[in-house]
TrEMBL record:
Domain Thioredoxin-like fold: 100-256
Source species taxonomy: Bacteria, Bacillati, Actinomycetota, Actinomycetes, Kitasatosporales
Protein name (Swiss-Prot/TrEMBL): DsbA family protein
InterPro entries listed in its UniProt record: Thioredoxin-like_fold, Thioredoxin-like_sf
Organism, as annotated: Streptacidiphilus alkalitolerans
SUPFAM superfamilies associated with the record: Thioredoxin-like (SSF52833)
Protein origin, superkingdom: Bacteria
Amino acid sequence: MAASPRVRVAKAAVAAVALAVAVGGEATVAKALSEGGLQRTTADRPADQRMLAPAAVSRSLSRAPLVKASPVKAPLVKDVPQRRVLLGLPARLSPDGAGIDVGYADAPVVLTVFEDFRCSTTAAFEARQGAKLAAMAAAHQVLVRYVLESSLDQRLPGPGALLATNAARAALAHGGFPEYHALLFANQPDEYTDGFTEARLLQLGSSVPHLRGPAFDAELHDLWYRSWVGQAQTAYTDAKVHHGTPSMLLNGQEVDLGAQPKLLTDPAALGALVQQAAKSN
């Protein structure tokens, strides 16, 4: 026997109340998920479901469950394998004040390396040879003199090289240059992305023990070492090296990386170069 119109209306009212309770319960669950780091809201639903009538929404949810939104994560910091070695290395300004010396003054060989923090070729060099340079410096075999230029800022968007070089100089002032320098290259953003922001540079600084503090943070914010960045750029320009970055001087003489490309990629070749120079002294 068919239900009367009045009974059908009553049943529809009960269903509407039940649906409202269910929606309210889902909102409570969404709030709990949000507080626990997993957020599920109506924004996760397809746009064509957000304005549907309640019955249509109910049918849609039964066919396609809501997709949980992934929590927003801060960029990761990629570590370097030579971390422990770098933490024990001394660093100071070079005699002319334009470079940064890493290693010991009694090393028989001085290897000057010209780098730009935005240069992807230099990042590849550091990935292949950074650990070897650190090991040789720790063994008193070579003093590595870094000259940090920043001319890629003239051709690429943003002041990333300037900001990174200023930050590296601040790291030197606060005892964390060797590791911070390595982390900058290990976490180098794409050349065409202005990724070396103040926030990112501070985050990388947090990965170096005892580096972050009011002074370091202020020196990044205020570009405290901007004039030094210009001095380093002048030193690079005056050197007139032929290979851009990275380039090398061995005891003051330019290394022909075009004739010896393995020096950029092969730790054994780089070690042999330093050993041969040490024997020649």
